[in-house]
Design brief:
It contains 11 helices and 12 strands. With about 350 residues, the protein is an alpha/beta fold. The mean pLDDT is about 95.
Length: about 350
């Protein structure tokens, strides 16, 4: 599978996972905090930071009632209207340039998720190198077409989508000009329970759509993300907050800076551990072969003595014949005197 190049950075199975820190609404309407999150992301070693581009008015209507009010007892946002939630979480458009400039200054890629065509038009004026389609928008085919028409690499979160819907989305994106598509396995609940992650979908989705596949992860901790790397994920996205205790719309399922740094480190280790299909001693193991068991003379022997279980044993180190030859040696005569501690070899026999 070919690499995807984003702003000089290669994404693909032959490279460490591309780690995205998602800011979302964790800036709590403070530009200073937003820029501090960029710094924290860069310090953690991520490759990219993502924001979201919308306004409350481009997302929904300022109404209450069924569908417009969040009543789910399990929701982090119960009691809010959709409009209130999006107003609180939105990243002001006038901040975008400052955030992306800060990303460039810190050597990471800044990009966004647009939620309607006006957001795409705006982001194009800022020359973002990469786009993401959110799970809730992956069936918005007009939006997919508009983003794909930029010709830039496209991440698509797959939350809630049936295979038929994903097929339609991918076909639409390709027909509109998208050449580099990465599907992100996603569970659209906040936080997401690990047992709803179904990560075995990752290699299946990769083969089914002939695309790279990653993970947009809303679970707590690092375990799910690392398991995704082991299954072939080339991209991992996790939310980042400066401090969960400070609150914020997404803080409850976001990583703190130290945890994000750990994700970068451990995901790289998980990727390195994948290696290739290989048997036998690895380079790091070659010196250890001497500590295998092998056959040794454990009592002094005179020429003509027979090997028995009293004078021949399988012990460490591994410089004698392999233990599998024990039965072949028992009852055989030695041709010369042999001292205790001599490794067994064929030339000891008469």
């Amino acid at each position: 599978m070919d690499d995807i190049i984003v702003a000089g950075t290669s994404i693909g199975p032959g490279h460490p996972p591309f780690i995205i820190a998602e800011m979302s609404g964790n800036h709590n309407q403070s530009l200073d905090k937003a820029l501090a999150i960029v710094d924290a992301a860069a310090d953690a070693g991520v490759q990219a930071l993502k924001i979201q581009t919308y306004t409350a008015d481009t997302m929904t209507l300022d109404l209450q009632g069924e569908g417009f009010s969040i009543s789910d007892d399990q929701s982090l946002w119960k009691g809010k209207t959709l409009y209130q939630l999006y107003k609180e979480a939105a990243t002001p458009w006038e901040w975008h340039k400052a955030i992306f400039d800060c990303c460039r200054a810190r050597g990471i890629i800044g990009f966004s998720t647009p939620f309607d065509e006006t957001a795409v038009e705006f982001l194009e004026t800022l020359d973002v190198p990469l786009y993401k389609i959110a799970s809730f928008e992956n069936t918005d085919l007009p939006l997919v077409r508009r983003v794909a028409a930029t010709g830039k690499p496209l991440l698509i979160s797959t939350g809630m989508a049936e295979v038929s819907e994903l097929d339609e989305t991918v076909r639409t994106a390709r027909a509109a000009g998208a050449k580099d598509i990465i599907l992100l396995k996603c569970t659209s609940s906040y936080p997401a329970p690990p047992d709803n992650s179904h990560l075995r979908t990752i290699p299946h989705m990769r083969d089914l759509f002939d695309v790279q596949v990653g993970l947009s992860d809303h679970t707590l901790g690092l375990g799910v993300a690392l398991a995704a790397v082991a299954l072939g994920a080339t991209v991992i996205e996790k939310h980042l907050t400066l401090d969960r205790a400070e609150g914020g719309v997404d803080s409850a399922f976001s990583l703190e800076p130290g945890e994000m740094r750990q994700l970068v480190t451990e995901s790289r280790r998980a990727w390195q551990a994948l290696g290739e299909i290989r048997y036998g001693a690895a380079d790091a193991e070659k010196e250890s072969r001497q500590f295998r068991r092998s056959l040794y003379v454990v009592r002094d022997m005179k020429a003509g003595d027979l090997f028995t279980t009293d004078n021949l044993r399988a012990i460490r180190p591994g410089f004698g014949l392999p233990p599998k030859f024990m039965d072949m040696l028992l009852g055989k005569k030695v041709r010369r005197d042999v001292k205790r501690g001599t490794p067994a070899s064929w030339d000891l026999l008469t």
